[in-house]
């Protein structure tokens, strides 16, 4: 679908699109966009000063009384220690500001080399359906990339094996080379398959490209092929590649149901052939998706499906006695892996107490560990982020104010409030309009009714709210589209039903608060990324949110206090947290400023947690 450009249409009707810059991931349908190269000049001064450029408006044009939104392409440079001349965006720009061309050379995505090395080096191969930024749909992609980079920097050898989705932009891969052509089994045939090697974000990646229709389409998921069969094929193709090339890592790290069939294939097939050394680690990122599988689908990848149809192996316990019974690839993966991880200690406890897989996990409790995810602090760094119009850090937040102003201006939000740069070049702090962002997949897990309620409540409280989300379900999409049509021409709410990595960076930077009202949340990255960018989190107390956000009003834990936490799933509970956040923001500016600095300094990096993964790898490896 073609994006409507050159008008407000992108605000009102929202093309469902992926972003198209060089580093953009390819979720959703492609949407054409023309690039608009910019010249960026470094500004020498460090004050928040507004100066007119060429024939463009004077500083007075940016006063609250003026209407800068009505001036498409107005060029105003704002001096900032690290910002460039900013070309202020407008909602009527032909190219939305998040689709401009971004400099790629500003950020060094090489793996950091100054990290202390672990004494005993491992070879780890991740086998995964997602990898950020080239094939990212949600947190899984971020986690695989972040963990791989952290382990590389600690001196380990790490590879990622990924399906060569048709939608991956090849320009995002360095040194892409065909390394192996071989056959991999599917449904009685050996399918000619290519393996390519390339580098993404400093990580060696092996791309598996079958010659059949698997992994073709415009997005990572949802192509017109049977996903269960495709990922079973991929799992076997990865093991086959290791066998053909004689590569035997210490650890094969599989993720989610998509690669849950690999441990079965390994122990019941490839370990009896040539692969002896590897041990298998499975990370469960979200128990909701358990990989429903029929016996015939397992047969097609060369296993005997009937062998796994037992409660001890892979049968979905809820279907016992039904005709036919179903299997679960995730359950098979749990049973057959040497170690199982999930992404936060609280989610580990929750999964042991509820859900049909709890009994299987309890049976395998001794190999089940909860390790909090980290975030990649090079990729998510407001001091160097190439997508931000102005950079900032915990000690100098001027750039954050500019980012807020930039986003408000670009989306046509009302410019009254504390981010406004007045004619005398100062920020007008008299009207306090906090900006709340919510960046999420729009699925039931994420608390859809609370997100829609928050839109209403934030408006009532005189704040502003931006939702950036994509809904895989058409009904949810049309509900949010209705809300978008209702609000997007107004002064205080924007709902953008798109996937855009670039815009997400800008929104985290612009936000005063980041909202994560999930019904359940295995770990959650949005609250951690938000904090890194100085957005104070408002979260529901569940899973990893409970492990990372601690309430400001909990007197017994003042040291950890870093946000606003509510427990109920009702609107009143959310109101309670939102209202408190707004009143801190408005009535307690010094505490608020201290909290912004504090959340930015919290170390949620992989450096903190990768060591725990290494311990798990070491506990199962063969020496
Ligand atoms: P989940 O894995 O359940 O989707 P997480 O919080 O673990 O949730 O990770 C979500 C990741 O996806 C974050 O990096 C978030 O910024 C990103 N994300 C979610 N929706 C969008 C979107 N519409 N556009 C850009 N990034 C998004």
Automatic annotation (TrEMBL):
<dbReference type="InterPro" id="IPR001296">
    <property type="entry name" value="Glyco_trans_1"/>
</dbReference>
<feature type="region of interest" description="Disordered">
    <location>
        <begin position="53"/>
        <end position="76"/>
    </location>
</feature>
<dbReference type="InterPro" id="IPR013534">
    <property type="entry name" value="Starch_synth_cat_dom"/>
</dbReference>
<keyword id="KW-0035">Amyloplast</keyword>
<dbReference type="GO" id="GO:0019252">
    <property type="term" value="P:starch biosynthetic process"/>
</dbReference>
<keyword id="KW-0934">Plastid</keyword>
<dbReference type="GO" id="GO:0004373">
    <property type="term" value="F:alpha-1,4-glucan glucosyltransferase (UDP-glucose donor) activity"/>
</dbReference>
<dbReference type="GO" id="GO:0009507">
    <property type="term" value="C:chloroplast"/>
</dbReference>
<feature type="domain" description="Glycosyl transferase family 1">
    <location>
        <begin position="432"/>
        <end position="582"/>
    </location>
</feature>
<comment type="similarity">
    <text>Belongs to the glycosyltransferase 1 family. Bacterial/plant glycogen synthase subfamily.</text>
</comment>
<keyword id="KW-0328">Glycosyltransferase</keyword>
<keyword id="KW-0150">Chloroplast</keyword>
<feature type="compositionally biased region" description="Polar residues">
    <location>
        <begin position="55"/>
        <end position="66"/>
    </location>
</feature>
<comment type="pathway">
    <text>Glycan biosynthesis; starch biosynthesis.</text>
</comment>
<feature type="domain" description="Starch synthase catalytic">
    <location>
        <begin position="123"/>
        <end position="351"/>
    </location>
</feature>
<protein>
    <recommendedName>
        <fullName>Starch synthase, chloroplastic/amyloplastic</fullName>
        <ecNumber>2.4.1.-</ecNumber>
    </recommendedName>
</protein>
<keyword id="KW-0809">Transit peptide</keyword>
<dbReference type="InterPro" id="IPR011835">
    <property type="entry name" value="GS/SS"/>
</dbReference>
<keyword id="KW-0750">Starch biosynthesis</keyword>
<keyword id="KW-0808">Transferase</keyword>
<dbReference type="GO" id="GO:0009011">
    <property type="term" value="F:alpha-1,4-glucan glucosyltransferase (ADP-glucose donor) activity"/>
</dbReference>
<dbReference type="Pfam" id="PF00534">
    <property type="entry name" value="Glycos_transf_1"/>
</dbReference>
<dbReference type="Pfam" id="PF08323">
    <property type="entry name" value="Glyco_transf_5"/>
</dbReference>
<dbReference type="GO" id="GO:0009501">
    <property type="term" value="C:amyloplast"/>
</dbReference>
């Amino acid at each position: 679908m073609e994006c409507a450009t050159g008008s407000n249409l992108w605000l009102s009707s929202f093309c469902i699109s992926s972003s198209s810059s060089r580093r953009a991931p390819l979720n959703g349908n492609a949407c054409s966009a023309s690039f608009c190269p910019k010249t960026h000049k470094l500004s020498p001064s460090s004050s928040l000063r507004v100066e007119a450029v060429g024939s463009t408006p004077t500083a007075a044009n940016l006063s609250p009384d003026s209407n800068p939104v009505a001036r498409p392409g107005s060029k105003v440079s704002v001096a900032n220690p690290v910002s460039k001349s900013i070309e202020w965006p407008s909602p009527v720009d032909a190219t939305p500001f998040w689709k401009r061309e971004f400099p790629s050379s500003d950020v060094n995505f090489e793996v950091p080399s100054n990290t202390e090395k672990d004494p005993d080096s491992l070879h780890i191969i991740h086998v995964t359906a997602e990898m950020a930024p080239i094939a990212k749909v949600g947190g899984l992609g971020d986690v695989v990339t972040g963990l791989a980079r952290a382990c590389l920097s600690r001196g380990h050898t790490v590879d990622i094996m990924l399906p060569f989705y048709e939608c991956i932009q090849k320009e995002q891969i360095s040194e892409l080379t065909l390394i192996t052509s071989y056959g991999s089994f599917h449904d009685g045939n050996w399918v000619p398959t290519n393996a390519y090697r390339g580098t993404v974000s400093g990580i060696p990646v092996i791309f598996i490209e079958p010659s059949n229709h698997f992994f073709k389409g415009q997005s990572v998921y949802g192509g017109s092929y049977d996903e269960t069969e495709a990922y079973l094929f991929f799992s076997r193709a990865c093991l086959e590649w290791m066998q053909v090339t004689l590569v035997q890592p210490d650890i094969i790290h599989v993720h989610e149901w998509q690669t849950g069939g690999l441990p079965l294939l390994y122990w019941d097939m490839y370990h009896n052939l040539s692969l002896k050394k590897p041990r298998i680690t499975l990370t469960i990122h979200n128990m909701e998706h358990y990989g429903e599988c029929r016996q015939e689908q397992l047969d097609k990848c060369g296993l005997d499906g009937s062998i796994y149809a037992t409660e001890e192996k892979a049968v979905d316990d809820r279907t016992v006695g039904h005709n036919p019974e179903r299997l679960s690839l995730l359950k098979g993966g749990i049973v057959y892996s040497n170690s199982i991880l999930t992404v936060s200690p609280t989610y580990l406890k929750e999964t042991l107490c509820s859900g049909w897989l709890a009994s299987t996990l309890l049976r395998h409790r001794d190999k089940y560990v909860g390790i909090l995810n980290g975030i990649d602090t090079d990729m998510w760094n407001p001091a160097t982020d190439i997508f931000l119009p102005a950079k900032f850090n915990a000690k100098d937040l001027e750039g954050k104010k500019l980012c807020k102003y930039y986003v408000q201006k670009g989306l046509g939000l009302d410019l009254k409030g504390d981010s406004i740069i007045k004619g005398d070049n100062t920020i007008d702090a008299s009207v306090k309009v906090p900006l709340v962002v919510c960046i999420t997949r729009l699925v039931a897990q994420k608390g859809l009714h609370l997100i829609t309620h928050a839109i209403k409540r934030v408006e009532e409280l005189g704040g502003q709210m931006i939702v950036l989300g994509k809904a895989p379900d058409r009904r949810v999409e049309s509900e949010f589209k209705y809300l978008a049509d209702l609000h997007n021409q107004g002064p205080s709410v924007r709902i953008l039903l798109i996937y855009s990595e670039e815009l997400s960076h800008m929104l985290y930077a612009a936000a005063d608060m980041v909202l994560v009202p999930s019904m359940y949340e295995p770990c959650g990255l949005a609250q951690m990324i938000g904090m890194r960018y100085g957005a104070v989190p408002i979260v529901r107390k569940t899973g990893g949110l409970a492990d990372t956000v601690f309430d400001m009003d909990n007197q017994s834990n003042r040291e950890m206090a870093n946000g606003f936490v509510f427990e109920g799933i009702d609107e009143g509970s959310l109101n309670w947290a939102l209202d408190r956040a707004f009143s801190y923001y408005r009535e307690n500016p010094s505490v608020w400023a201290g909290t912004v600095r504090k959340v930015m300094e919290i170390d949620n990096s992989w450096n903190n947690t990768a060591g725990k993964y290494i311990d798990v790898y070491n506990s199962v490896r063969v020496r």
